[in-house]
């Protein structure tokens, strides 16, 4: 009976950890259980499942402990190979037709760094006979590999999301974000993802591996790493203002999230380097590192 299967599992995967929550619905106030499981080295590398057996064992344990068998699953994948593009398509196309049309344009009108993409489209404004859209492309084999292992473990995958979109969703729906030009700085222990949101739409993203990913680095070494990446953050801020908007707009809000052990130090250094307001999801009910999975839990039911 349907009512016995209420609720959904939300899983965010990085190369290091699997974070999860269980929600009764998509309400911010919905009671949840949450936690994380560390992934042994080389279980997932560069967003790709390397050791399927280990991942399946971890999932089976979590499903058994939490009684998730046959529950709906929403999951986020690492943003390492996502491509976001602004394109124009004929205004008459439906979203399904738009996806087919875009696939015919790959390799001629524009290029992707991988073949066989999974594609999602978001409509923007209309200009005469054309519609502006956002294209999200991700290697389909990566998504299929995750879906298959989730299904084998006994979950029912419903939808996939990007971690950056999940984080922004939480900010937007819980903080009534009024800024139109936002840079999300998702700073994890092993990677830094910078995503620009314009009018609440993700229009640009950059993924950078953090070479020194050990937890036991000194604070001095951490500051060196932080300063190096703040240079990159400033470059993205300038790139948005002078290249993307041609000087018409500039970033007016920074969001800072992630599981980087020295995130508070990063915020202090960032505050000294820029004059922009920084929102860091402090004073939330759950630890900062869970903001991505909370945002995923707010994704509307498919």
From TrEMBL:
Secretion signal span: none
Database matches in PANTHER family: CELL DIVISION PROTEIN FTSA-RELATED (PTHR32432), ETHANOLAMINE UTILIZATION PROTEIN EUTJ (PTHR32432:SF3)
Identification of the protein by name: Pilus assembly protein PilM
Organism whose genome encodes this protein: Virgibacillus indicus
